[in-house]
Design brief:
single chain, 365 residues, alpha+beta, Rossmann fold, OB fold (Dihydrolipoamide Acetyltransferase, E2P), five-stranded antiparallel sheet, 8 helices, 20 strands, binds adenosine-5'-triphosphate
Length: 365
C-alpha cells in the first residue's frame, strides 16, 4: 500500500479557485476522509490525486515519487465512484474481473481473484447474477470488488454511498471500515456527511471553499475545532456560539460576557480583542437555578434518552443536550452553566480558535 502526499495543491477553473493550496499527507494504511459542504473542492482534489484532473499548481507524491503529471492509468490507484458505473450486460463475476481481463490476466487467475474478492465482500452467491437485478448495496459491493482485484496502492472513493438510503448507508459504512481493517488499504474517502466521516475515519480533513480548515482524528476535530467553520460543521446540533466584544490575553482564565464572568481554559497566546465568540457544545451546557446566564426556553426536542432544549439568551439561541427525564416547558426561565474546561474562544473576525489549555494536547491539525 502507499503513502499519499499532497503539496500546495491548487486548481483554478478560469476565475474560480476550486482548491486553494492544500497540503496534507495520508499515511500508509490510513482511512482518510475529506469532509465538507457541496462545492468546497473535495472531488476536484480527489480527481487530481487520481490523475483525472491536472493541478494548476502543486505536487502529488505516491510513496515519495512525484506523480503529478503521470496519467491516471499509470498511478496504480483505484477510484470508486458514487454512481456504480457497472456494466449492466455483464454478470457480477464479469464486472469484478473486468480490470484483470483488460490487463490480459489468464482466465483461471481472473476466476481465482474474482472469487477471493467476492468472498471478502460476502457476495460469492451473486457471481452469476446480472448486476441490473442487484440491490443498491450489492451493486456497491460489486464496484468495490472491481477496485479490490486491481490490488491498487490506494483507493479513492467519491461519496460511494451517496445513492443508498440511510439505513443501508449505515450498514455499508460498517462494512467499508471492516474491509479497510482487513486489507489495510490506504483510502481517501470524500463525503459531505459528518456521521460517515466520524464513524469511519482515522483522520479527517475538513474543507471549506477550497481550503483545508483542519486535519485531525474525529475526536480532535470534534473536541478541539480549529475554526468556527469546523465547530459549526461538526456535531448535531452543532456547537453554540455566544458572540461578544472584548479582549483576552495570555493567562486569562475567564471572559466577561452578558454581565457574567465565565470560566474558560487558560489562554495560551497573546490573545485577541474586538469581536470574539465563546463556543460551547450542547452536551456541555447544564441548567442551574443560580447560573449567571439566564434565558427563556424556546422549545424542546425529545430524543429518547436525551432531549435538545433550545434557550433564547439575549440575541443568541443556545441548544443544550440534557437528560430526557428533566421536565422542561417552553417559556420557562432557566439558568445556564457551561463546562469550563471544554469551552473554545474564537476570534470572530478571522474565525480562528484562540490557543488555550484546551489545545495543549495538540489537535489543531
Ligand atoms: P460536491 O460534493 O457537490 O461534488 P465538492 O466539494 O466535491 O462538491 P468540487 O466538485 O470539487 O466540490 O467543485 C469545487 C468547485 O469547482 C465548485 O464550485 C464546482 O462548481 C467547480 N468545478 C468543479 N469542476 C469544474 C469544471 N470542470 N469546470 C468548472 N468548474 C468546476
Amino acid at each position: 500500500m502507499a503513502q499519499i502526499q499532497v503539496e500546495k495543491l491548487r486548481k483554478a477553473f478560469q476565475d474560480l479557485i476550486a482548491v486553494d493550496g492544500s497540503t496534507f499527507t495520508v499515511e500508509d494504511g490510513t482511512f482518510f476522509v475529506m469532509l465538507g459542504p457541496s462545492g468546497c473542492g473535495k472531488t476536484t482534489t480527489l480527481r487530481m490525486i487520481a490523475g483525472l484532473e491536472l493541478p494548476t499548481e502543486g505536487r502529488i507524491l505516491l510513496d515519495g515519487e512525484d506523480v503529478t503529471f503521470r496519467r491516471a492509468a499509470a498511478r496504480d490507484i483505484a477510484f470508486v465512484f458514487q454512481l456504480f458505473a457497472l456494466y449492466p450486460h455483464m454478470d457480477v463475476a464479469g464486472n469484478i474481473g473486468f480490470p484483470l481481463k483488460c490487463q490480459g490476466v489468464p482466465r483461471d487467475e481472473i476466476r481465482r481473484q474474482v472469487h477471493a474478492a467476492a468472498r471478502l465482500l460476502c457476495i460469492e452467491h451473486l457471481l452469476a447474477s446480472k448486476v441490473s437485478r442487484l440491490s443498491g448495496g450489492d451493486r456497491q459491493r460489486v464496484a468495490l470488488g472491481r477496485a479490490i482485484v486491481r490490488r491498487p496502492k490506494a483507493f479513492l472513493m467519491d461519496e460511494p454511498l451517496g445513492a443508498l438510503d440511510s439505513e443501508l448507508r449505515h450498514v455499508m459504512c460498517g462494512e467499508l471500515r471492516e474491509l479497510h481493517d482487513r486489507i489495510s488499504a490506504t483510502t481517501i474517502y470524500v463525503t459531505h456527511d459528518q456521521l460517515e466521516a466520524m464513524s469511519m475515519a482515522d483522520r479527517i480533513a475538513v474543507m471549506n471553499s477550497g481550503l483545508v480548515e483542519q486535519i485531525g482524528t474525529p475526536q480532535e476535530i470534534y473536541d478541539r475545532p480549529a475554526t468556527i467553520f469546523v465547530a459549526d460543521f461538526i456535531g448535531s446540533p452543532p456547537m453554540n456560539f455566544l458572540r461578544f466584544d472584548g479582549a483576552i490575553g495570555r493567562g486569562d482564565r475567564s471572559v466577561r460576557l452578558l454581565d457574567a464572568n465565565i470560566a474558560v481554559p487558560e489562554v495560551r497566546e497573546e490573545g485577541a480583542h474586538g469581536s470574539l465568540a465563546l463556543g460551547v457544545r450542547p452536551e456541555h451546557v447544564t441548567l442551574a437555578d443560580d447560573a449567571p446566564i439566564r434565558g427563556r426556553v424556546f422549545g424542546t426536542e425529545y430524543l429518547g434518552t436525551t432531549q435538545i432544549v433550545t434557550v433564547d439568551v439575549e440575541q443568541s439561541r443556545i441548544k443544550a443536550r440534557l437528560p430526557a427525564r428533566h421536565a422542561i416547558r417552553p417559556g420557562e426561565l432557566v439558568g445556564l452553566n457551561f463546562r469550563p474546561e471544554r469551552l473554545v474562544i474564537f476570534d470572530a473576525t478571522t474565525g480562528r480558535a484562540i490557543e488555550s489549555a484546551l489545545y495543549a494536547g495538540g489537535g489543531r491539525g
